[in-house]
Amino acid sequence: MNILVLNSGSSSLKYKLFSAAKEEVLAHGLVERIGMPGGLGKITHQVQQNGKYEAEEEISNHQQGLRMILNLLTDEKWGVLRDLKEIGGVGHRVLHGGEYFKESILVTPEELRKMEELVELGPLHMPANLMGIKACAELMPGVPQVAVFDTAFHQTMPKKAYLYALPYELYEKYRVRRYGFHGTSHRYVSGQAAKLLGCPLESLKMITAHLGNGSSLAAIDGGKVIDTSMGLTPLEGLVMGTRSGDLDPAIVPLIGSKLKLTPEQADEYLNKKSGFVGMTGYSDMRDIQRERQAGNLRAQEAYDLFIYRIVKYIGAYMTALKGLDVLVFTAGIGENDWQVRADICRELEFLGVKMDYEKNEGLRGKETILSLPDSKVKVLLVPTNEELVIARDTMALIS
To answer: Do residues 155 and 102 touch, judged by C-beta distance below 8 A?
Structure first.
């Protein structure tokens, strides 16, 4: 059986087709610039044995984008399937599960209605996620669909970790609380870390560091999340590519007043014009590294703030966990920027972290143990694979 995994963004559709039995990627690609006025959309499709296909044309909506994907998957030259009936299920990455969804679910009309009620908790991502589900229902009738929620893995947090000190009616009426995100990634790398160490996950106190353009940490005790750095939305927590991370809430009305911004514009300002890009003009860590090495003071300040905030969270989570056995780095920065990993671990040496700096230097995207044998805390690099988690959950539920 084959499983199609979809990650629907507001103007994009990322996909992977898995052979479920072998957990092998047969084809993958990206449809981007969907519905963009005055411009062409683009599709990039890659087959493991057959190279890359690229094309540009007008793509008005997600349904059209999905139709292009399905046509390519069965194309005589670029396809890997004889018939769409060979797709046994579709797994969707869905941003927000609220308190309804604590695990992945088989999509039914009733469950879809519940997801639609959660759009206000994720207004930037949820409409696109739901469009992907509806497009599949139209074009692949009868094929079971599974929703895998970014927030689900964090639903083991205790109330003391997820409540905000706000009037309680905001939680009771509107479910204003901390949810956390990147849950599929934190779930995958924590499990892989336990396998790499040959230890039961239930026996480990672990911090997983998903560091990319969006970044978050999770404190995981015995396989269950007890705290995570993102909150009601992915804006809370660490400094990120375009997001501010933690700040004084009074800053929001202040910038609204000074810059004459509506609440929606202020939200966009903090989500898309802050973080690295606000401090330096660059949102990518590769640019930050290049600029600070060239003597750019703002790039150095942004980098120092990024490292400091991560180290501060790790210290707090070690206290919450009452110890630490494993620190795991993953995602774009965590997997590929050895300097970031080294600088974080240097700040943690007083806690018994001993990194093999020589082994770490230059290492990119390879699952490995980075700490010295006598380190009190094992330091690991584990490349994330959220799509594989979605494929596994889809297979399990449709079976």
So the answer is: yes
Question: Does the annotation place 14 within a ligand binding site?
Answer: yes
- Active-site residues: which are they? 150
User: Is 273 labeled as ligand-binding?
Assistant: no
Strand pairing class (12-19; 326-330): unpaired
Asked if 331 and 313 count as a contact pair (C-beta separation under 8 A), the reply is no
Going from the first residue of the chain to its last (399 residues), give the mean pLDDT of each consecutive group of 10, the final group possibly shorter: 88 89 91 80 86 88 88 90 92 93 95 92 85 89 95 97 98 95 96 97 98 95 98 94 95 95 93 94 95 97 98 98 98 96 98 96 96 97 95 94
Q: Could you give the angle at the alpha carbon of 143 between the alpha carbons of 153 and 385, nearest 5°? A: 35
Q: What are the E-state strand segments in the chain?
A: 2-8, 12-19, 24-32, 41-47, 51-57, 87-94, 105-106, 145-149, 205-210, 216-221, 224-228, 326-330, 368-369, 378-381
Buried b (16+ CB within 10 A) or exposed e, 235-268: bbbbbbbbbbbeeeeeebeebbeeeebeeeebbe
Nearby residues of 262 by Cβ (< 8 Å), 6 or more positions away: 256
**What stretch of H or E contains 280?**
helix 275-280
Distance of alpha carbon 164 from alpha carbon 244, whole angstroms: 19
93 among the known binding-site residues?
Answer: yes
